[in-house]
Design a protein that fits this description.
Blueprint: H1 3-18, H2 23-38, H3 49-56, H4 60-72, E1 76-78, E2 85-87, H5 89-119, E3 122-128, E4 133-139, E5 154-155, H6 161-168, H7 172-181, H8 194-207, E6 210-213, E7 220-228, E8 234-243, H9 249-269, H10 275-280
Antiparallel strand pairs: 1-2, 3-4, 3-8, 4-5, 6-7, 7-8
């Protein structure tokens, strides 16, 4: 950066720092709220406002304001009898979500490698995240012409195999939100009608897997199946994707059978019992 460029940037930064109620103030509040949450432990699960203020070295009025905001968001709870604070259920829910993603990734990894070796195609593991499919593990095909995905990127729910599987097993509000966001036509084969998409997800739920036939990208086909946890909740989707010249519809259906075996195996590793296993138990 040139000296003149630095000179033009520095005053603006200084003005933002001096601006009351600006980004720095908001960031400081977030930082202090996080410090407040980190005070709690197994040994100190319930803490009063004075003790909280002392531990984070902030005024009681500031800590009370932060604690009140955290209670409103479910991050903290306040006991009725003593008025002390404890960690809220929202944190438990978020922690459980992170734990499930870690468990799914670890348990699925050897099965994903096996699928990659047997099919020679790209394998994905995705989870539902903010009305989209988030890739949390990808094993790319070693062939010259292959489908490429990046861990941490998102895919639409309505036109990808992993997305449609997650959508088929999601709560009704996820379907409504997906439709509300718009079913944009990415190819001539993309489903853009809400009723058609609804019929598709019902079919996926009954069949057990989703097919993608050039709906997100011309020349791309895929198949995906759900991974369930001990409660039966579909927490992830495993997908196989490849170019249409290698993945004919006959090949795709053959992969679907292999994929169901793999998704069931991973689900069992997470504690899920298929109806057949449950009847035998």
């Amino acid at each position: 950066m040139s000296a003149s460029a630095r000179a033009s940037v520095t005053p603006a930064r200084a003005r933002r720092r001096m601006r009351p109620g600006g980004a720095r103030t908001r960031l400081s509040s977030v930082t202090n709220a996080l410090r407040l949450l980190k005070v709690f432990s197994d040994q100190d699960s319930e803490i009063g406002i004075s003790d909280l203020a002392r531990r984070v070295n902030l005024a009681k009025s500031t800590v009370h304001r932060l604690a009140s905001s955290l209670v409103e968001e479910g991050m903290l709870e306040q006991t009725e009898r003593e008025g002390k604070y404890r960690l809220g259920l929202t944190l438990f829910e978020l922690g459980s979500l992170v734990r499930r993603k870690m468990d799914v990734t670890n348990e699925a990894r050897p099965y994903l490698r096996s699928l990659s070796e047997s099919t020679g195609e790209t394998i994905q593991l995705a989870v539902l995240e903010q009305s989209s499919a988030l890739y949390i593990n990808v094993i790319e095909s070693q062939r010259a012409l292959r489908m490429s995905y990046q861990v941490g990127t998102r895919a639409p729910l309505y036109c990808t195999a992993v997305g449609k599987v997650l959508l088929a097993h999601a709560e009704a509000q996820i379907f409504a939100a997906t439709v509300a966001q718009g079913l944009t036509a990415l190819t001539a084969a993309t489903i853009t009608d809400a009723d058609s998409l609804r019929r598709e997800v019902v079919l996926i739920g009954n069949r057990g897997y989703a097919l993608e036939d050039e709906e997100a990208e011309p020349g791309l086909r895929g198949v995906a199946a759900p991974v369930r946890d001990f409660s039966g909740l579909a927490v992830a989707a495993i997908g196989i994707s490849g170019p249409t010249h290698r993945m004919s519809k006959k090949v795709l259906l053959g992969y679907a059978r292999d994929l169901l075996d793999v998704s069931n195996a991973v689900s069992q590793r997470l504690g899920y019992q298929t109806p057949l296993l449950a009847r035998r138990a």
